[in-house]
Design goal:
The chain is α/β, with parallel strands linked by helices. It has a single domain (2-244), classed as Metal-dependent hydrolases (TIM Barrel). It is built from 9 helices and 9 strands. The chain has a 6-stranded parallel beta sheet. Strands 1-2-4 form a 3-stranded parallel beta sheet, with helices on one face. Helix 2 runs parallel beside helix 8 (216-226). The structure holds fe (ii) ion. Fe (ii) ion is lined by residues 22, 24, 99, 153, 212.
């Protein structure tokens, strides 16, 4: 009985964010959703925890050298297929963008004018999970000069990037925003990433939270995270800019 009340009370906790601007739900283009059914299932979960609007952000990096024109075409196909689910409570799928990897192999490739930004000429960027000696700051600065607003995805997941490191301070100084993964806060990527995720947010430098949802395993974890009292408390104490996208 209490369990039922608990679930109902907490089910929409991410409605304060409204928009999810980081997920991999374009079928078969990266390590995310494999088909439309899986995408629909994940979208239902996103809706059930309170998200109203979604931007899909497939990987663009050496392992997934996606082509923007092809991604646009596949996105149009997906939006056609999702029409069959109108009225079934799915969140609005508002657009397609990308999660652009900046590393030795890819930064210059991402530099061409083809990139698909989020609204407000905003680009979601990621780094390699393990340091390769590549310093992204010059490439980020180039994008800033071209008028892009940059968001660094999941800073808590890079072991080499400390909260008060020079790199983070420089990124903040150049106007980069930070996006922590919601699932990090439930320990999905380990304890270190979880602690760092909370610390980045409590330090006041995180402007966005994203699900980085890939598939139904992630969706199940998202539902568990919605019941996490530490996450609930955090959402009451901090505001984020997801709704501006
Ligand atoms: Fe991602």
């Amino acid at each position: 009985m209490f369990g039922i009340f608990n679930r109902n009370r907490n089910s929409s906790i991410f409605s304060v964010l409204g928009t999810d601007m980081h997920c991999h739900l374009l079928p078969n283009v990266d390590d995310g959703s494999r088909n439309v059914n899986e995408t629909v299932s994940c979208l239902k979960t996103l809706s059930s925890v309170g998200f109203k609007k979604i931007y899909i952000t497939p990987h663009f990096h050496a392992n997934y050298p996606n082509d923007e024109a092809d991604i646009q075409k596949r996105y149009e196909q997906l939006t056609k297929e999702l029409k069959a689910y109108v009225g079934q409570g799915l969140p609005e799928v508002a657009g397609i963008s990308g999660e652009y990897r900046f590393d030795h192999q890819y930064a210059r490739r991402a530099g061409v004018d083809k990139v698909i930004p989020l609204p407000g000429k905003t680009l979601l960027c990621e780094l390699a999970l393990h340091s390769s000696g590549y310093d992204p700051l010059d490439d980020f600065a180039e994008y800033k000069k071209l008028g892009y607003n940059l968001i660094l995805a999941h800073p808590e997941r890079y072991p080499y990037l400390g909260l008060h490191s020079d790199a983070v301070i420089k990124m903040k100084d150049m106007g980069m925003a930070f996006q922590v993964n919601i699932l990090s806060l439930n320990g999905f990527y380990g304890e270190t990433a979880m602690d760092k995720g909370f610390s980045f947010i409590e330090d006041g430098i995180v402007e966005y939270l994203g699900t980085d949802l890939h598939n139904t395993r992630y969706a199940n974890e998202l539902m568990a995270t919605a019941r996490n009292s530490k996450v609930q408390s955090l959402l009451k104490r901090h505001t984020f800019r997801n709704n501006t996208l």
